[in-house]
Design a protein that fits this description.
Blueprint: H1 2-16, H2 21-40, H3 45-48, H4 53-69, H5 77-92, H6 98-102, E1 106-112, E2 117-121, E3 124-127, H7 135-148, E4 159-163, E5 169-173, E6 183-187, H8 196-201, H9 207-218, E7 223-227, H10 233-241, E8 250-254, E9 266-270, H11 284-291, E10 298-301, H12 308-316, E11 324-328, H13 332-346, H14 352-362, E12 365-371, E13 377-389, E14 392-406, E15 412-418, H15 426-431, E16 444-446, H16 447-457
Parallel strand pairs: 7-11, 7-12, 8-9, 8-10, 10-11
Antiparallel strand pairs: 1-2, 1-6, 2-3, 4-5, 5-6, 12-13, 13-14, 14-15, 15-16
Helix pairs in contact: 1-2, 2-5, 4-5, 11-12, 13-14
Length: 458
């Protein structure tokens, strides 16, 4: 009875706040909090984890509608509908972020405290009007999100990195580590696979560049994709993986499952962090060693960031060719240096000349991707590793993107160029049935020429 009386008091405050929109909104939030408490009191959270999301959402909506009907004479139709929507969103764990999770144009959601929510659309960050009631509300939402996937975040364990049920990647930090309120990053992935056609239409690459990379995949060459955070490394890895023949068995290893391979014979594995007692950790290196016993035709590492880099090179050099991975770096040459560092950290007793030889014999092609100032993502380098000369791993650029400026709308202007170097791998591609003429690598293709050619083809 006390709870019902409290709700009634909230209703009365809503009614009395019709003149002041801010006060009315505050009372609305109080009423929502009261009804939300009543709604979740009848939910067994352990059971809810085993129920499909669509079914759970339907049941929650039915309960929210029933509870809100008790106060329909005090709420407008729009307010009642908003109340139902927000109650369901709160209970499902995403709260104010739920509309953003349903928006297919949003690729990243970034929360810097309760009053600051940004999203990325089309490669460009933009603020949103979304706010949380306070930091406690934000932390509560973070805990619910983590709890839905069996993870825990609290003051004793104030960081979490997890994969959500829809495949999105969650990273969150709460106080005391986050000084101005909880920090949340959600990386979302399109359910629609990117295609070579879409990369060409968005001027992210040329047809010749993608044709060459597809041939390298089919010729079982080892490919390393480099780039910065959010540059599109995993997106390109997904695209190139589509060229692997469907008859092959593919083992994938990731820290957070982001790859969406379409082949029928894929063995997907994901690392696991240690529990609160410091036990149960399974690293990329553990999974890679195990993958070698699974009779894979190819091994794809989602990202090289630690000691597993050494084991990956060993695998590539011992008959497991056709592998692919990504690495954080500023350009293709820097990717080699970073790989050297990772290997030397894993095997401190190895001389550098030996590490150089391992890299030069294992990695054939390096593809560097960049997010441009205007938000566009482009393949800016395709380089071939050709061997070792003294203390240096030799490589040369086959294709580059040369930026010349930006237009009035901030979009990057420039041109793709073939560098006029005939790849040493041409014979290997030919043996795989992929024929290229030397002229293919002497062409210089400008963005304007490519777009004009596309218009003529239409």
């Amino acid at each position: 009875m006390r709870r019902i009386a409290s709700i009634s008091e909230g209703n009365q405050m809503i009614r009395s706040a019709t003149i002041d929109p801010e006060a009315r909104e505050n009372r609305f939030q109080q009423l929502k909090a009261e009804i939300h408490e009543k709604l979740i009191s009848g939910i067994d959270m352990a059971v809810s984890r085993s129920v499909k999301e669509d079914r759970l959402r339907e049941e929650l909506r039915r309960g929210a509608e029933q509870l809100s009907r008790m106060h329909s004479d005090l709420l407008s139709q729009a307010e009642r509908q908003r109340l139902i929507d927000e109650l369901v969103d709160e209970t499902m764990g995403l709260g104010p972020l739920e509309p953003l999770m349903r928006d297919p144009s949003v690729s990243d959601i970034l929360v810097n405290g309760p009053d600051c929510v940004y999203v990325e659309r089309g490669g460009v960050l933009e603020p949103t009007p979304i706010k949380f009631r306070d930091n406690d509300h934000l932390v509560d939402i973070v805990r619910k999100i983590a709890g839905r996937v069996g993870r825990r975040i609290d003051e004793s364990s104030p960081m979490v990195d997890a994969r959500l049920l829809d495949g999105s990647r969650l990273n969150a930090v709460i106080p005391p580590l986050a000084l101005d309120g909880a920090l949340v990053s959600i990386r979302r992935f399109s359910t629609k696979p990117i295609t070579a056609k879409s990369l060409i239409e968005t001027n992210s690459a040329t047809p010749m560049m993608l044709e060459f990379l597809a041939a390298c995949v089919q010729a079982r060459m080892n490919i390393l994709i480099s780039g910065g955070t959010g540059s599109g490394k995993t997106t390109l890895l997904n695209l190139l993986s589509a060229y692997i023949p469907k008859e092959e068995r593919i083992a994938t290893i990731e820290d957070a499952a982001e790859l969406r391979l379409q082949q029928p014979h894929v063995a997907r594995m994901e690392t696991r962090t240690s529990n609160l007692e410091g036990r149960g950790q399974v690293t990329s290196r553990d999974l890679l060693c195990n993958a070698l016993r699974m009779r894979p035709d190819r091994i794809i590492m989602g990202e090289c960031r630690g000691a597993e880099a050494f084991d990956m090179l060993q695998a590539m050099n011992t008959g497991h060719d056709g592998g692919m991975s990504t690495i954080h770096s500023n350009d293709a040459r820097e990717a080699i240096h970073r790989l050297e560092m990772l290997v030397s950290m894993a095997a401190t007793d190895l001389p550098m000349w030996f590490i150089h030889r391992q890299i030069a014999s294992a990695i054939h092609i390096i593809v560097h991707v960049t997010r441009m100032p205007g938000g566009e993502r482009k393949i800016v380098q395709i380089s071939e590793v050709t061997g070792v000369n003294g203390e240096t791993v030799n490589m040369h650029d086959l294709f580059i993107y040369r930026q010349t400026g930006v237009d009035e709308e901030g979009r990057t202007q420039g041109r793709f160029e073939a560098k006029g170097i005939i790849p040493q791998c041409l014979d290997r591609l030919g043996r795989a049935g992929k024929k290229f003429t030397p002229a293919s690598f002497r062409e210089t293709i400008t963005a304007e020429e490519k777009l004009n050619g596309m218009r003529r083809s239409r």
